[in-house]
Amino acid sequence: MSLPKLNGFPVPSLSEEDRAALEAAARRARVSALTMVTAASSGHPGGAFSGIEMFLTVYGTANLTPENCNALDRDYVVVSHGHTSAGVYAALAEWGFFDAGEAMAHFRQCGSVFQGHVEREVPAWTGGRATWGRGSPPAWASPWRSAPAGTRGASTC
Fold first, then answer.
1. The pLDDT value given to residue 34
2. Are 59 and 124 in contact (CB under 8 A)?
3. Is residue 111 within 8 Å of 101, Cβ to Cβ?
4. Is residue 56 within 8 Å of residue 91, measured between CB atoms?
5. Alpha-carbon distance 115 to 103, whole Å?
6. Cα–Cα distance for residue pair 152/44, rounded to 1 Å
7. Residue 144: what pLDDT?
8. What DSSP string runs through 119-146?
9. Cis check: omega of the bond before 4, within 30 degrees of 0
10. Are 103 and 94 in contact (CB under 8 A)?
11. Cβ-based neighbour number of residue 110 at 10 Å
12. Farthest-apart Cα atoms in the chain, separation
């Protein structure tokens, strides 16, 4: 079962088939996130687990795809809490930005793009996470400093 095409705000409703596909993706993403933190013996599974549906929904409705993730006129998603990286990676893998196996195999490894807090090298990542759970990214102090001029919108999780 593949994920439904949700691109564009708002998405007024979901069919039963789309809802079932998203629920299945959330289950797979939780398995991926748990595998990441277990294999690494490091990470925060609680934050990843509680944010899975939010990450799947926001990344699914944003104008952000594996094909346009390097474009300037795409949507930008800012995740304000860095301790959910395994959930972000799992959701992005479900939407096809990279293979979940890569994130599971290299989570929290030095030199890996999946080394812990989400870094700019991760496809679709905009940046801006708060330090120590403050819940607002440092980018808010200087709005959209990391977003290129002339870009569309942004979603903050």
1. 95
2. yes
3. no
4. yes
5. 9
6. 32
7. 40
8. -TTSTT-----BSTT-SS-GGGGSTTTT
9. no
10. no
11. 7
12. 42
From CA 79, how far away is CA 55, in angstroms rounded?
A: 9
Give me 153's structure tokens: 């919108």
Instruction: Please name every residue paired with 81 in a beta bridge, in sequence order, or none if there are none.
Output: 130
Containing 154, the helix (H) or strand (E) segment is strand 154-156
Beta strand segments in 29-153, E: 76-78
- Check residue 59 and give left, alpha or beta (phi > 0: left; psi -120 to 50: alpha): alpha
Contacts of 122 (CB under 8 A, 6+ apart): 88, 89, 92, 97, 98, 113, 114
For residues 132 and 84, the model is more confident at 84
Q: Indicate the pTM of the whole model.
A: 0.80
Amino acid in the structure at residue 32: S
Distance in Å from the first CA to the final CA of the chain? 26
